[in-house]
Structure formats: structure tokens, C-alpha cells
Amino acid sequence: MSLIFKRSNKILILKEIAKMSNCNLCEENKSFKKFLVIWFGQFISILGSGLSSFGLSVWIFYETGSATPFALSFLCTTIPIIIFAPIAGSFADRKKRKYIIMVTDTLDAVLKVIMVVLLLLQIMKVWMVYPILFISSTLSTFQGPAFSASIPMIVSKNKLSRANGMIQFSRAAQNMLAPVFAGALYPILNLSGLLVIDFISFFFAIATIAVIKIPQHKVNKENLSFFNTVIRDFKFAWNYLYEKKGFISLLFSFSGLNFIAITSLILLGPMILANYNASIYGTIEAVYGFSMILGGALSGILPNTNKKIRTIFMALGFSGVGLIIAGSSPRWYVIGSGFFIFALLVPYANTLLDTLFQSKIEPSVLGRVSALVSAILSSVTPIACMLAGPLADDIFEPLMSEGGILGNSFIGNLIGCGTGRGIGFLFILCGIILILSCILMIFNKNANTLEERIPDVAE
């Protein structure tokens, strides 16, 4: 009788465990469904923003016929990230993240309405675009840490990689789809029509975020001025990362790799247009965008490895091979193939990096830390913008010209000489530096053992 009783207890216990497992599984599925709702709204909004962004670039070109305004507009979208990222991190941790996302989306939609009114009144000038882009980028800077820090509060840890992969996919889809749709719609709707579509897409983002509850850890508030709070938060975020040995070296290595990538992407256009027309350039951009989409899809399928750092640098080393291929020949299809390889595993590397930070950084400080990370990674962008042109025009292009020092050498015989070949040679050097940097980081003890040394945060 006692044996039957003990066996019955075991059965009951097993049933309870099964129920608990099923409940946990249901909760995980529910939380991921919440993320899918938010992701869908943001995806539609991102596509809308891509349409207006492309339309704005076309409008600037038609108004000025010059490349200089493009550089200025690019700087206007980059500088706010560097300036306001620490403040944005404090907001993300100390204020309601849901409200930050909703308010920034709403204000950005208001900017679109302002531009539509200016266009309809025919009083919009190019100089007006710069402050609007600056404000829009500032809003995006505040929204980024709030959105990033919200993901681990909604999605269970074992599905973080999948969620981040979907975010990478949506960004890649914008790069591919937005120029295609905007290019077809611009002759019909003009910039004002694309801005109206962007404004409509804003309602998808607001509606989906409004119906989802986003949990948030409480942060102790001190009786300090906001400026002092920001400075203190910035120091806190820096010290927090510094104490987790390996994170700082990891960040600065990514800054260097980011510099290489931005320099290459800036010079892709001049390299192609030096020998081909805009149609070929558009084709290569489409190939690059398709590769990002494919990479974004793969990042949601590929395994969430326990060797994230090593995998990240192996993936980025593969990207370096793509740069070498892109620079090795003046033929457009070789360049396109190189940039396809260059972009393919970048979303996967970004997904692993995001997952690593979200699993190792406490949710209550993730906003501040994410903002600091964004500031460090973005700090190289203005430098790349200022150096890319002079490096190509004043150094590498003359070196690889037909009468240049390297143009008549074995390098010129190997990759060709003449217009655009200096940029090609610069691509090859960037690819080699990228591969060597990745190899060094793979053997960097502090960075490579980070996953084993630093425990995951509690869910």
C-alpha cells in the first residue's frame, strides 16, 4: 500500500512539473507574440521612414545637383547620436520606456507634417532640411535605447537571438525595399506623397506599442539636477562596463571595424560611378540590400551559440574577404559579389552582439549602457565621413593612376590601374585590416573568455 502511495505521489509530482513546464512554455509564447505585435508595427514604420528618407535624398539632389549636401545631411543624422546618447540612456532607465517610444514616434510624425506643409506652400529650402534631420535623429537616439532595453523585458532569454534577428531583418528589409518602392513612387507622388505614407505608417507603430504592457525595473532616484544625473549615469555606465573585463576592448574593436565598414560604404558610390552609370550603382545597392535581408533571415535561424564572441569575429572576418574581392577588380559584378559577401553575415554578428549585451547586462541599467555603446560605436562615423574623401582623392587614386607609383607596379598589374582603382586598393587594405583585427580579437583573452567569466543576469 505504501509503495502504491509513493508511486502515486511521484505521478502527481510529475504531472505538476509537466503543468508548470507547459505554463512556462505558454508564457514564453505569449511574450514572443507581444514582441511580434510590436515588431510588426515598427517594421511598417521603418519602411515608411525609408521611403521618406530616399525621397528626401532625391529632392536634395534635384534642388542642388551637388554631393556636398548629402555629406551635411549624413552628419546631421550622426551628430545627435554622439551628443545625446548618454542622456537617452538615462531616460531609458529612469522614465517609462513605452512612453518614450510613443512620444518620439509622435514628434517624428509631426516633423513629417511640417515638411509636407512647407512643400505644399512651396517654401521649403534645402537648409531647412538640416535642422529637421537633426531633430528627427535626436528623437531616434532617444527611442533606440528605450526600445533595445525593452526587448529582454518582453522576450524570454532563450528567444532573444530570434527577436534580435528579426530586428536585424527589418533593418535590412528597409535597405532593400524602401529604395525600390520609393524610386517607383517618387515620379508619381513626389516627396510630399512619400512623407504622407511615412506619416500613415506612424499609426501602425503607435497602435501596436500602445496595446502592449512593457515591464520595467525601478531605478533609485536621487536628488540631483538632470545634468548631474546624466554625468553620473555616463560614469556609471562606463565603470559598469569597465568592471566587466573585456567589454571595453570589445567595444573599441567594434568601433575600429565600424570605421572600416563606413569608409567602404561611403566610397562605394564614387568607385562605381567613376566607371559605370547610376543604374549599375543601383543594382549593386540592391544586391547589398538583398544580402542584408538574407543575413537578417539567417540570423533568426542560425543557432544561438555559446561562443558568441568568437563567432562574431569569424563572421566579420568573412566580411573582410568580401571587401578584398570587391576591390580586386573593376568589373561591376565582381564588386557586387564582394559586397554581397561583405554584408551577408553582418546581421548575424549584430544579433549575437545584441544578445550578448542583453544577457550579460542587468535590465535596470541596460538603457544607460546601450546609450554609451551607441555613442562609442557612432563616434567614428564623422571621422570616416571626413577622411574617406581625402584618402580616396588625394592619396589612393593618384597612387593607382596610370602614371602613379603603384599603377605601374605589380599591384597595378594585379588589380588594374586608372579611375576608381585607388578606391579598389583601399578596399583591399580595409579587408586585410578587418581580417587581421578579427584574428587578434579571437585570441584576445579578456574578450574571448567574457561569456564564461561573466554570468548571465537573472530573468
UniProtKB/TrEMBL annotation:
Chain ranges passing through the membrane: 36-62, 68-87, 195-214, 247-273, 279-302, 309-326, 332-353, 365-392, 423-443
Compartments (UniProt record): Cell membrane
Keywords, in A-Z order: Cell membrane, Membrane, Transmembrane, Transmembrane helix, Transport
Record-level GO cellular component terms: plasma membrane
SUPFAM superfamilies documented for this protein: MFS general substrate transporter
Source species, domain of life: Bacteria
Membrane topology: Multi-pass membrane protein
InterPro entries according to UniProt: MFS (IPR011701), MFS_trans_sf (IPR036259)
Example GO molecular function: transmembrane transporter activity
The keyword Hydrolase belongs to this UniProt entry's keyword annotation: no
PANTHER family named among the record's database cross-references: MACROLIDE-EFFLUX PROTEIN (PTHR43266), MAJOR FACILITATOR SUPERFAMILY (MFS) PROFILE DOMAIN-CONTAINING PROTEIN (PTHR43266:SF2)
Name listed for the protein in its UniProt record: Transmembrane secretion effector
Organism: Clostridium collagenovorans DSM 3089
Lineage: Bacteria, Bacillati, Bacillota, Clostridia, Eubacteriales
